[in-house]
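Before surveying the methods themselves, let us examine one representative protein, pairing a chain with its fold in token form.
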Amino acid sequence: MTEPAGTPPRKKLLIRTWGCQMNVYDSARMADVLAPLGYAPTEDAAEADMVVLNTCHIREKASEKVFSDLGRLRDTKQRRAAAGKDTVIAVAGCVAQAEGAEITARAPWVDMVLGPQTYHRLPEMVARLSRAAGQVIETDFPAEAKFDHLPEASAPQGPIAFLTVQEGCDKFCSFCVVPYTRGAEFSRPAAAVIAEARRLAGQGAREIALLGQNVNAYHGEGPDGRVWGLRRLLRALAEIPGVARLRYSTSHPRDMDDDLIAAHGEIPALLPFMHLPVQTGSDRMLRAMNRGHDAALFRRIVDRLRAVRPDMALSSDFIIGHPGESLRDFEDTMALVRDTGFALAYSFKYSARPGTPAAGLPGQVPEAEKDARLQALQALLREQQQAFNADCVGRDCDVLITGPGRYPGQLAGRSPWLQPVHLFGNEFLPGDIVRVRLSAALTNSLSATLAHQEPAPA
């Protein structure tokens, strides 16, 4: 198909994303705001007219990875320039927010630096760049909500869609940069969230995952003029035609109130899966981390969730080797893990983030000790994940089909506990919800047969 006369040539956009699911959501919305400027996606840096690195500051050596990628992009930019092609390089996200000045100093070939609260300004930044030479930097926290300036239209996400409802953090944990890179807690109005969820459902989404740095602190203005909590929002979303499954991440134990716990026993669409980071099982370390809760509160929340939803599966985050962590503190973490039982967990060694309170604390744990403790914890967590998956074998459950599997005739999907599930059947399409019997636990997934069928003979 030929373009109409006078239509400018399509430009190519490459967005590389690190970090959390919210960054994935942000990258998709960046593509949405750039699409009216003629940018279409590509995976090849050599053909990209614009490259955006959407960065995360949470993981270890995040900045080094960004600068390493920028070095390779400098070479690409030079090769394209020699062929008469311009390349715009932008650094976005939390590393951009925290280290914008260093990026412009160390990588002067970067054209734009923008924080996570300003990506709705990308078209304006591109226009400013085209009018004048030099770098364009946007790392402030604008007074207006970025969501008010994003286009309503967005690219379909598929059967599982992600929707940001809350951003920012007021907790100021000692190890975390989020309050400094994402700003104060902000909740989108419920009407805007519901409208976006309706659009996603209209595009074929059957499961909607609500995102936020502290998603269970949601307190958006409702259509009735009152403040809605997350429970009220979830109830409204569950009424949208086509929405069969709901979940939310990431939560903080301090914001896990009675209403939200009750919602897990009241809203059938709410999946029996909770990601609830605890970070450590030691009360002494929880105080040092400024978490604002103790291990007993976490245990009570788990007990209450399982009381209202007996099949609840839990996921969590753990940081090993926070400054001052003793062997006894680590043993308290191992005890909490044994007592709780996790279906999934993410665990990391503590690494200092510039500007955070913990970075300058005494009692930094030697790397070798952090390594040994982390390996012990991860071995226990793997054992628990494998036990949970094995315990699921023989259960009947509904699986959301997400697409084809690896082999001809195979389908891939997700269980209510978010495990990858594979089954054979040509009669189903992505977005279908199929009743299956989980038949075998593999290393990182489960196999299944239709609930009314018997497994094929070996």
The first helix runs from residue 21 to 34. Residues 158-390 form a domain with the pyruvate-formate lyase- activating enzyme fold (CATH 3.80.30.20). DSSP finds twelve helices and 21 strands in the chain. Confidence is low (pLDDT under 50) at residues 1-7.
